[in-house]
Each structure stands twice: as C-alpha cells, then as structure tokens.
Write a structure and sequence with these properties.
Bound molecules: 1,3-dihydroxyacetonephosphate
Shape: globular
Strand order of the largest sheet: 3-2-1-4-5
CATH topology: Rossmann fold
CATH class: Alpha Beta
Number of helices: 6
Radius of gyration: 14 Å
CATH superfamily: Methylglyoxal synthase-like domain
Length: about 140
C-alpha cells in the first residue's frame, strides 16, 4: 500500500500573501504531491490560484487558525510548515504566531519562515517523497 501523502501547512501574513500565491503557483506541481493545510484567508487565495492542490482550510490565523495548525503539529498530522511571516507589522495574535513556531521547533519539523528557506525545504521534501515512491514501486 502506498504511503499516505504527507501534509504541509501553508500560512502567510497579509503583506506576504501575494508572495505565497506566487510561490505556490510556481511550485504547484511539486506541492500537489502533498496534502495542504492552510489558515483560512491564505487557503482561500491558494485554492483559487492553484486548482491542482488539495487544500484543507482551518480558521483564519487571528481567529484560532494558527493554534489549530499548532495542534496538528503536536499530533503529528503536519510534517512541514511554510509560513511567510511579516516581521514588520504588529499582530493582534502575536502570541499565537509565537506558539505555532515554538511547536514547529518542539516537534522538530522542517519549518520555513521565509521564501528563501521555503525553496530549499520544498526541494528537499520533494526529493524525499520521490525516493519513497520509488522504493515502494
Ligand atoms: O494570521 C495568519 C498567521 O498568523 C494567517 O491567517 P490567514 O491566512 O487567515 O490570514
């Protein structure tokens, strides 16, 4: 039986959403090998821009979405996180953002907090997924 698709969380703050959509469109093929979970607003934009992706939305970040994704990391249901953070704007849910990135560290998942790191991580996990598929064939 083939291994279940791994899950990537995609999250972007408002000023980084355009960058996230561009990133996801450029890598739509690679991302389609994974299940995507996304915070509400980010997920809506991605679903519209990238029809090839299976996106499971949670609540919007400020309304609990970051905490939902944090819980999924703690439960082992999210294996990678790509989070385009805005380091230059104050956030009402700053504590949730901190809690989420903290759990990414606690559970030691590959976690990209900017585009440069996201490019590197996506390349690595795509190669890993392809190797697993080949080994199972
Ligand atoms: O605020 C966020 C992450 O902290 C993102 O939430 P949205 O995708 O709902 O805007």
């Amino acid at each position: 039986m083939p291994a279940a698709k791994k899950t990537i969380a995609l999250i972007a703050h408002d000023k980084k959403k355009a960058e996230m959509v561009t990133f996801a469109k450029r890598h739509e093929g690679a991302l389609s090998a994974f299940t995507i979970v996304a915070t509400g607003t980010t997920g809506g934009l991605l679903a519209e821009a990238c029809p090839a992706l299976t996106i499971k939305p949670v609540k919007s970040g400020p309304l609990g979405g970051d905490q939902q994704i944090g819980a999924m990391i703690a439960e082992g249901r999210v294996q990678t996180m790509i989070f385009f953070m805005d380091p230059l704007s104050p956030m009402p849910h700053d504590v949730d953002v901190k809690a989420l990135t903290r759990l990414g560290s606690v559970y030691d998942i590959p976690m990209a907090l900017n585009k440069a790191t996201a490019e590197v991580i996506l390349k690595a996990i795509t190669a890993e997924a392809a190797a697993t598929e080949k080994a199972e064939a």
